[in-house]
Design brief:
Mean pLDDT of chain A: 89
Mean pLDDT of chain B: 89
Oligomer: heterodimer
CATH architecture of the largest domain in chain B: 3-Layer(aba) Sandwich
Number of domains of chain A: 1
Structural class of chain A: mainly alpha
CATH topology of the largest domain in chain B: Rossmann fold
CATH class of the largest domain in chain B: Alpha Beta
Low-confidence stretches of chain B: none
Shape of chain A: globular
Order of helices and strands of chain A: HHHHEEHHHHHHHH
Largest sheet of chain A: 2 strands, antiparallel
Number of helices of chain B: 10
Order of helices and strands of chain B: EEEHEEHEHHHHEHEHEEHH
Strand content of chain A: under 5%
Radius of gyration of chain A: 19 Å
Strand order of the largest sheet of chain A: 1-2
Helix content of chain B: 25-40%
Largest interface: A-B, 17 and 27 residues
Shape of chain B: globular
Largest sheet of chain B: 6 strands, mixed
Low-confidence stretches of chain A: none
Number of helices of chain A: 12
Distance between the termini of chain A: 44 Å
Strand order of the largest sheet of chain B: 6-7-8-3-9-10
Radius of gyration of chain B: 17 Å
CATH architecture of chain A: Orthogonal Bundle
Chain lengths: ~300, ~240
């Protein structure tokens, strides 16, 4: 049970961050290879506030979210003025800079990291593993609801328009920078939430937990599940989270298997498992149609 | 004057595409700019919309200098474009495409009324409202593009090569529609066209653009009878 709860919790936490990345990459069409930076900012913010300022998780959470979203805004402002490959490079840069700040600033615990992060308590009682998993699941549900709501707002629609054709969108009176920035801030906020949960789950964090490879793994989740879909990042996080457990015996070949998986996806299912022209969705639809046909 | 373009120069990597173009459009007019391929017609419209910035000259719209204004700011002031090749949002539904046209101004515009009016002009857009726009045919996409530009009740509509890629019967229909929008709705239109005959047929005034220069301007009716225009653009 504990093993299951541990694996499931990390998957749920990563799914929250992946949902945030999906808002940026899937909805607004802006590549980000530095999502782990904001995951880290949320984690460090909550860790510092609870260990050094003595706040509870619940008091620290809104502040952590505010910090990650403000930094998302500040770093997004210059980044989102460039496009495509330049944006990819800029976001990689953001990731390395943020990681370096954590490593080289004694204030943030330096290379030793931050320890002694308290467990999350609800009504004065500390949550056990499975209770914490339930709490994370609630946050994931809220995240998904916000994502769904966002796609129905005018700003969400503006993001889609910018993704499809930035020039045409601007000639409708949409400010592309504003649309992209709103997606970026929302996405980094979700990364911050995920990071805060991670800090109180791991209870010890160090800069290495938020490095560039983590950004890649988050992007893989989004691409694998289906960019721009609601449940895609969830499925992606599940698969990428479960794989290392299943392939434990093939540990040495893990990166090889990931790369193969990604290459196959990009070659045969560029829309992801749940995206456009998805084989999985097609199969499901086929089965449902056959059912309907046979029952009619 | 609704639109005043003076001495507009545009250069790509040092190569000038327009050398000091001046033109005016008054409220309620339907003006066309005709010219051969490569004359700079599309460049001119794209610069008016702010998709690229001029290297010299000025653009005044409703009395204000907008030479260096951003595209979305121009759109908010009432300038809309029906771009070459429609440029619809292909993954959004037809209805969502139309709604993008009133982005940020839905309080100023009676959206439902405008929708009803557009549906009466383009019944197919109502029928296919829930469909993803990429499933529309070329002609339907062009109609969607026009409707999307018109829904916000713009004060100036820029139309770029609307006849391109449409079958002849549809071309006539689209030109008829532009004439109707201008005549009945009082919509001011600046039309850029290779199809000189059709565009002169519906316009009040016209400019002839030749490799980056305005070589002729005048009443559309007179142009239809002008020897040089007949020879060069009408093939008569």
């Amino acid at each position: 049970m504990d093993y299951f709860a541990t694996v499931a919790t990390i998957i749920v936490i990563q799914a929250i961050a992946a949902c945030g990345l999906n808002v940026i990459v899937g909805y607004a069409g802006q590549i980000s290879l530095g999502h782990a930076a904001f995951f880290g900012i949320g984690a460090y913010a909550s860790a510092m506030l609870t260990t050094k300022a003595g706040l509870t998780f619940w008091q620290a959470l809104p502040i952590s979210l505010l910090i990650s979203m403000s930094l998302g805004f500040l770093l997004g402002l210059p980044s989102l003025r460039v496009r495509e490959d330049f944006l990819a490079i800029t976001t990689i840069g953001i990731n390395f800079i943020v990681e370096a700040v954590f490593v080289y600033t004694p204030f943030f615990g330096g290379a030793l990291g931050l320890g002694g992060i308290p467990r999350v308590a609800v009504f004065g009682s500390r949550l056990g593993n499975s209770q914490f998993l339930a709490l994370c699941a609630v946050f994931l549900a809220i995240t998904l609801m916000i994502c769904r709501q966002f796609t129905r707002t005018w700003m969400g629609l503006a993001c889609f328009a910018v993704r499809e054709n930035e020039t045409a969108a601007s000639s409708m009176g949409i400010s592309p920078v504003r649309a992209k920035l709103s997606a970026f801030v929302l996405g980094t906020g979700m990364a911050g939430l995920s990071g805060a949960l991670y800090a109180h789950y791991a209870r010890f964090i160090s800069a290495g937990d938020f490095g560039f490879p983590i950004s890649i793994s988050m992007l893989s989740m989004v691409v694998l599940g289906g960019m721009g879909t609601l449940a895609g990042p969830l499925l992606g996080a599940l698969i990428i989270g479960v794989l290392p457990e299943v392939f434990r015996s093939l540990m040495d070949y893990r990166m090889f298997l990931y790369s193969m998986l990604l290459l196959l996806m990009i070659r045969f299912q560029p829309g992801g498992l749940l995206g456009e022209q998805s084989a999985a969705a097609g199969l499901l639809k086929g089965i449902l149609n056959r059912r309907r046909a046979s029952s009619a | 004057m609704l639109l005043e373009v003076s001495d507009l120069t545009i250069a790509y990597n040092g190569l000038e595409a327009l050398h000091g173009v001046s033109l005016q459009v008054d409220v309620g007019e339907l003006v066309s700019v005709i010219g051969a391929n490569g004359a700079g017609k599309t460049t001119l419209l794209q610069t008016l919309m702010g998709w690229q910035l001029p290297s010299g000259g000025s653009i005044r719209f409703e009395g204000r200098d907008i030479t260096r204004a951003q595209t979305h700011a121009r759109a908010r002031r009432g300038m809309r474009i029906v771009p070459e090749k429609a440029r619809i949002f292909s993954q959004l539904t037809v209805y969502e495409n139309l709604m993008m046209g009133v982005y940020g101004m839905r309080r100023k515009i009676p959206v439902d009324k405008r929708l009803l009016w557009l549906y009466s002009l383009f019944p197919v857009l109502e029928e296919r409202g829930a469909q993803v726009a990429s499933t529309l045919s070329g002609g339907e996409q062009q109609q969607l593009s026009i409707a999307r530009a018109c829904i916000s009740a713009p004060s100036l509509l820029l139309v770029d090569e609307v006849s391109m890629g449409l079958m002849p019967r549809l071309v006539d229909k689209v030109f008829e529609l532009l004439k109707q929008l201008n005549g009945e709705e009082g919509l001011t239109i600046l039309l850029v066209e290779q199809n000189a005959l059709a565009s002169l047929g519906i316009s009040h005034r016209a400019y002839v653009l030749e490799t980056g220069d305005i070589v002729l301007e005048g009443k559309a009716g007179q142009m239809l009878n002008d020897e040089r225009v007949r020879e060069a653009y009408l093939g008569i």
